[in-house]
Amino acid sequence: MSTQASFTLRSRNPDVLTCIANLSNDEVFTPPEFANQMLDTLAEAWAASNGGANIWADKTAKFLDPCTKSGVFLREIASRLNYGLAEEIPDLQDRINHILTKQVFGMGITHLTSLLARRSVYCSKYATGKHSIAKGFNNDDGNIWFKRVEHTWVDGKCTFCGAGKKTLDRGAGLETHAYAFIHTKNIKTRLAENFGGNMQFDVIIGNPPYQLDDGGYGTSAAPIYQHFVEQAKALEPRYLSMIIPARWFAGGKGLDEFRESMVADARLRSIDDYLSASDVFPGVGLKGGVCYFLWDRDNRGPCKVATHFKDWPVSTASRPLLEKGADVFVRFNEGLSILKKVVAVESGETDSVLLPESKRFERLVSSRKPFGLETTFRGKVSKSAGDVLVYQNGGTGYVARSSISTGADLIDKWKLFAGYAAPGTGNKDTYPHKIISTPFVAEPGTISSETYLGIGPFESKNQAESALSYLSCRLTRLLILLHKPSQHVTRKVYSFVPTQKWTRLWTDEDLYVKYGLSASEIAFIEKVVRPMDLSESSDDE
User: Fold this and answer.
1) Using 50, 70 and 90 to split pLDDT, how confident is the model at 205?
2) Please, which of 72, 217, 282, 414 could form a disulfide with 464 given CB 3.0 to 4.6 Å?
3) According to the model, what pLDDT value does residue 361 have?
């Protein structure tokens, strides 16, 4: 088969990169169709900033994937350059050699993925192999580099990525997952060592590893993708585009500083937000969805935000990443207009999303462990004198009142208990959904373990039931969703929720009228948030 065939027949035969299985949920292969969508976004931005010029016809442009796995980005870039440069470099072999030796660069995240990437780009696991379509390399890696890197341990943690020594100091026989791109104090020096010379890239693009499991997936997995974004920015490319989990919108574990830097960066010019990760990565469970962004070093301005989900119409708006009064990126374009109407009624301000402190529902919500008891706590089966009833994971029990030193203001008051973990369908995102677990009224003389947050105190059962009806409303739960980065429902996610008068039972119809919502806004709420039946169990989806 000729080298020409290797570039052209792929359009007529099944693409092997659509068939391979993901390594894990933190190292996810990018489907070729989605990689090309990101490259289309890049090409449009390049043309807009360069008088309509075609980036794929520029023989000086340099591209880097710093976290290459299947090699799909590099392969598709090389294919586009092959067609774009055909007129300027007519000889096919000369053109391929120029593209692969001068323009396309990658860093494998593991030894295995570096071999896979070279096969995708060079048609050989070694750049100098007899089947390699590149004829200008003098080393086996070519421009797809991988060398084993070790973590730097200080007090049991890696100083670069925060990985735990106990989990990832595993000896020479296993991968370290110490990714070279982020395990260095000077990334420019590392790239010069890898590829030679002073490397200045026009485009950095990729799909970085998402997290490091430090001993228990789902409970202690720490995000790592933010380090790749920050390191890429430090290289000052003209454009940067990466696909990453969308949880950074509202911060969370290890992401607060990253969120603050991203929403304050006017060079972030577009975000394509996918509410369900499975719409991008079929079969992959990743709660909270994913997004890809385009960062433009030389152009500042508002961000074009596009929201995608299943067959819904794509919602697009150009807006600031950080609204006045917000400390998070408000995810839904439609949700932002609703939030502004709510705040306008409660505060009189029309251009802010900040509620007056006295009207924030979060003031009624406890911190984690409202009574100091872990999720694993199990109370006694039978009650003794001086005991209080404890709502715990899986049921109820009893514990001595004298042993409870936290949350004393709630023990003898009416209150609500709401699950700390929201309901869900495993790691899948589905809409409409409940947003929070079904809350319930708890009488005086009761407490809970960490499984629940306490909401109150209320002076009477009627007040508690009024608040319960309010939390069952779809609008209330949409406002929670706008601040919720993951399945955990902390006190902070209630920041956009206003308090009400607890003298009546609330309905969505009451709230829609109070805040003057339009028919389209109501339709959006009811498309995203599922009705809540208060007779459901607290952990029922």
Assistant:
1) very high
2) 414
3) 97
- Cα(361)–Cα(455) distance, rounded to whole angstroms? 9
DSSP string, 243-312: EEEGGGGG--TTTHHHHHHHHT-TTEEEEEEES-GGGTSTT---TT-EEEEEEETT----EEEEEE-TTS
Residue 18: pLDDT band (50, 70, 90) is low
Mean pLDDT of the chain: 88
137-172 residue pLDDT tens: 989 999 999 988 999 999 989 999 988 888 888 777
Dihedral sign for Cα atoms in the order 260, 264, 266, 270: positive
H or E stretch at 522 = helix 519-528
Task: Centre a 10 Å sphere on the Cβ of residue 540 and count the other Cβ atoms it contains.
Answer: 11
- 408 alpha carbon, distance to own chain's centre: 37
Residue 325, classed as helix, strand or coil, is coil
Q: pLDDT tens digit string along 163-172?
A: 888 888 877 7
Grade residue 537 by pLDDT with cuts at 50, 70 and 90.
Answer: low
Element (H, E) at 395: strand 395-400
Q: What is the pTM of this model?
A: 0.87
Rounded to whole angstroms, the Cα distance separating 320 from 517 reads 22
Phi/psi of residue 484, each to 5°?
-105, 110
pLDDT in tens, 118-128: 999 999 999 99
Q: In angstroms, rounded to a whole number, what is the distance separating the alpha carbons of residues 117 and 9?
A: 19
Q: Are 249 and 331 in contact (CB under 8 A)?
A: yes
What is the CA angle 409-539-469, rounded to 5? Answer: 60
Phi, psi dihedral angles at 195 (to 5 degrees): -115, -10
3-class DSSP assignment, residue 419:
strand
For residue 222, the surrounding DSSP H or E stretch is strand 221-223
- The angle, 0 to 180 degrees and rounded to 10, between the axes of the packed helices 474-481 and 461-472 is 70
Residue 370's Cβ-count burial label (10 Å; 0-12, 13-18, 19+) is buried
**pLDDT number for residue 350:** 86
- CA distance to 9, 31, 206, 295, 382, per residue, from 266 (Å): 42, 29, 21, 9, 60
